[in-house]
UniProtKB/TrEMBL annotation:
Belongs to the cytochrome P450 family. It holds the Pfam family p450. PROSITE patterns: CYTOCHROME_P450 (PS00086). This is Cytochrome P450 hydroxylase. GO terms for molecular function: heme binding; iron ion binding; monooxygenase activity; oxidoreductase activity, acting on paired donors, with incorporation or reduction of molecular oxygen. CDD domains: CYP107-like. Keywords: Heme, Iron, Metal-binding, Monooxygenase, Oxidoreductase. Gene3D superfamilies: Cytochrome P450.
Length: 428
């Protein structure tokens, strides 16, 4: 699974009991079985070593880092950059699926920048997501959550993704960043699929490019509106930063793109994964419903147990280098498995057990280092409000069918479901 020169098993052609492939071959990170439950595979990889060659649906191969200590170290390794310009020709040919000119116009946001540019761009958004501001907005978040629950059927059941999780994070995000209501109402969640890989020859490519053009036009409308109607909000401050020369037009559009997509879809997925976990553990669900003061600690454990941000985005070495005992060529993509790190038994005793009393709980669900998620305080507030509201207002909450039959989204980096049918006794 690691490179042959560093893994005797690879030279011997050992077969992985989970994937069935030889250790010298890249391990495929796709397919319905993998997406529904990747943890057996991650356990196998951790046991074999910290770095492994893997392959994604687009055909791109990458180096996957597993294990808590290796992940923590990699996330803080100054040799690894995020700028796409560091990727080699093979990576650009297969992984840069967004066509030009959109790739250059929408892919120069925070996730793809390195210091000092990253430092300046990050500073522009920090105040909007500061814990003190998020705490002040929590009553409004509660109003939004209650309104969505009010719209659910009074009894029987509902789909908690389509009826709640698909809408709540975007409504919160619109409040936090200052997206005008008339524009917020027109946002199409389907546009978020532009971050899912669709290769140039894929039959779905025309639809992909249509979403991309529509989203780009929507971003242009936001910029035009906040240019003519500035306010005291994040979007207005970003537009002003462009006018003052702190951002290029491409960087402004990219940051709005990141806010609209990365600012809400991962929370939608995390709500769904948390609900699935609780429905699989009805005793823990009942305990949390009856002891709401457990909620902050329970949310941290749910984040650790099944993180919706399964893998980090790409990192690259500028020069050939050693990564935890494996030689990695310059420009090859390096990915960290946050889910594999968060289930490492060397860091978390009984790591596969859902334990709301776990302490300490230094999980990596929001990353670590300079790219630690700037919206972590917002995500935590949303998750506490969402889970707490659903458990409190939907007594008797239970799955409407077999949870093992849920269809998990085929996204490369994320975990979540697009549908979660449940039943409940009544809507309080």
């Amino acid at each position: 699974m690691t490179s042959p020169e560093h893994a005797p098993a690879a030279a011997a052609g050992a077969r992985c009991p989970v994937t069935g492939v030889t250790a010298a071959e890249p391990v495929p990170l796709y397919g319905s079985a993998y997406k529904s439950d990747p943890y057996d595979l991650y356990r196998e990889l951790r046991d074999a070593g910290p770095v492994h060659r893997v392959r994604f649906p687009s055909g791109i191969a990458a180096w996957l880092v597993t294990g808590y200590q290796a992940a923590h170290s990699t996330l803080n390794d100054p040799r690894l950059g995020k700028n796409h310009a560091l990727g080699n020709d093979n990576w650009r040919a297969l992984a840069s699926i967004m066509p030009e000119p959109q790739h250059s116009q929408l892919q120069v946001h925070l996730l793809h920048q390195d210091p000092p540019k990253h430092t300046g761009m990050r500073r522009l958004v920090l105040d909007a997501f500061a814990p003190r501001r998020i705490e002040a907005l929590r009553p409004r978040f509660q109003q939004l959550a209650d309104a969505l629950v009010d719209a659910l059927p009074e009894e029987g059941g509902a789909d908690l993704v389509q009826g709640f999780a698909a809408h709540y994070p975007f409504q919160v995000l619109a409040e936090v960043i200052g997206l005008p209501p008339e524009l917020a109402r027109r946002f199409d969640r389907d546009w978020g699929k532009v971050v899912q890989p669709v290769g140039p020859n894929d039959p779905g490519r025309p639809a992909y490019e249509g979403r991309l053009r529509a989203l780009q036009g929507y971003i242009a409308e936001i910029v035009a509106h906040r240019t003519s109607h500035p306010g005291d909000d994040l979007l207005s401050r970003l537009v002003a930063a462009r006018e003052h020369g702190e951002l290029s037009r491409e960087e402004l559009d990219s940051m709005i793109f990141q806010l609209l997509v990365a600012g809400q879809e991962p929370v939608t997925n995390q709500i769904s994964t948390m609900l699935v976990t609780l429905l699989r553990h009805p005793g823990q669900l009942a305990r949390l419903r009856d002891t709401p003061e457990l909620l902050p600690r329970a949310i941290e454990e749910l984040l650790r147990h099944d993180s919706a941000f399964e893998l980090t985005t790409w990192r690259f070495l500028a020069e050939d280098g050693d990564l935890h005992g494996t030689r990695v060529p310059a420009g090859d993509s390096v990915i960290v498995s946050l889910c594999a790190a968060n289930r490492d038994p060397e860091q978390f005793p009984d790591a596969d057990t859902l334990d709301f009393d776990r302490t300490p709980n230094a999980h990596l669900a929001f990353g670590h280092g300079v790219h630690f998620c700037p919206g972590a305080a917002l995500a935590r507030a949303e998750l506490r409000t969402a889970v707490g509201t659903l458990l409190r207002r939907l007594p008797g909450l239970r799955p409407a069918g077999d949870l093992d039959q849920l269809a998990w989204i085929p996204a490369v980096l994320a975990r979540g479901v697009n549908s979660l049918p449940v039943v409940y006794d009544r809507r309080c």
